[in-house]
């Protein structure tokens, strides 16, 4: 399903390569967990997979078809770390409609239901949501584009324990319909889930069997 063939990423602004000889080949729609310490290249890998960054070398394929950066951007939804810091809509409805001016109300309700926010009024201010609800909203914003790959950068960072469990449950539910790729420095949180597991260390990826 998702294949990364010998991906290298060495931006001109970095003395050393950020990603080296990255290989992923997974055939099932099972979440991919990539763990690694700060600075190991996790965010860069998300940017490369989602087509936001062009690798220096290598190919990325989805369902056996090699895709350009443009094509990968079209099928990817990315939720970056602490997405709530970047909300700019004055209400939940406005946040959902950014980039989708004519988004029908029914689609807004549908995505909010998918992330478990269907009991919240559309005119609520995003900053008045709880930490867990804000993460749900950030995921809902990406679901509008119906991404085939949903990439989450540290989805549980900074959340209370009880809220983390809720977000994990949501990720589990969402993983039935799309490929979820998670980068995290807390892989132990996902231990109960059926996932593919990788470790990133100084730009080198290894599969944990
Ligand atoms: N465009 C760039 N130019 C120079 N250095 C870069 C560039 N992109 C990434 N790096 C460097 O590559 C390394 C990996 O960065 P990246 O943000 O991908 O790591 P990370 O594992 O996500 O870290 P964190 O958990 O702290 O966010 C860092 O040392 C970073 O400074």
From TrEMBL:
The ABC transporter domain, residue ranges: 2-208
Signal peptide (UniProt feature, chain positions): none
Protein family per UniProt: Belongs to the ABC transporter superfamily.
UniProt xrefs under Pfam families: ABC_tran
Protein name stated in the entry: ABC-type cobalt transport system ATPase component
Superkingdom of origin: Bacteria
Residue ranges of the TM segments: none
Taxonomic lineage: Bacteria, Bacillati, Cyanobacteriota, Cyanophyceae, Synechococcales
Record keywords: ATP-binding, Nucleotide-binding, Transport
GO CC term (a single one): ATP-binding cassette (ABC) transporter complex
GO terms, molecular function: ATP binding; ATP hydrolysis activity; ATPase-coupled transmembrane transporter activity
Keyword Repressor: no
